[in-house]
Design a protein that fits this description.
By secondary structure, the chain is of the alpha/beta class. The chain has six helices and five strands; from the N terminus they run βαβααββααβα. It is an enzyme of class 2 (transferase). Its EC number is 2.7.1.71.
Length: 172
């Protein structure tokens, strides 16, 4: 039984790829943010606004652990910060977990996030210039955790189909 967990920075395509891979492998698919929203009956954006990031990270940890304890194979897309808090990265080290770091350049991430800022609580208030610096700094801080993934797949310039084929081929 394998749990395929996609990690990487926000905007890298974890949700779209997770759905595609689960469809191709005929496995259940979970999006951690969706799971959290159903659990607390609030959007991630509203959780950040009303209760703050620390509260969100605690709920995120509980929900992540709950999913990882499920006795089934599935594909899971987690938030960009998930591996970086409450030692969540340790849950990715289990022998039944295949973690894949979807790695993108700062330039690609900033271009994507510019159009998605309204739906991203961590960057919603940033100007495009601030966004570049924010993403660069964040990626630097998070690389330690992202690089603990079993596999790294570069995504720049590749289609969703190509990336999903690449990930599926890694699974053996």
């Amino acid at each position: 039984m394998n749990k395929i967990v996609l990690i990487g920075y926000m905007g890298v395509g974890k949700t779209v790829l997770g759905k595609k891979i689960s469809e191709n492998l005929k496995l259940a698919y979970y999006d951690l943010d969706d799971f959290i929203e159903k659990k607390v009956n609030l959007s991630v954006e509203d959780i950040f606004k009303s209760k703050g990031e620390i509260y969100f990270r605690r709920i995120e940890r509980d929900c992540f652990e709950e999913l990882m304890l499920k006795d089934e194979s599935f594909v899971l897309s987690v938030g960009g910060g998930t591996p970086c808090y409450y030692e969540n990265y340790k849950l990715l080290q289990d022998e039944n977990v295949i973690s894949v770091y979807l790695k993108a350049s700062i330039t690609m991430l900033v271009e994507r996030l510019k159009t998605e800022k309204k739906t991203r609580p961590l960057v919603a208030q940033l100007t495009d210039e601030q966004l570049l610096e924010f993403v660069g700094k964040h990626l630097f801080e998070r690389n330690f955790y992202y690089n603990k993934a079993k596999y790294t797949v570069e995504v720049d310039g590749k289609s969703i189909s190509k990336i999903s084929e690449e990930i599926i081929s890694l699974l053996g």
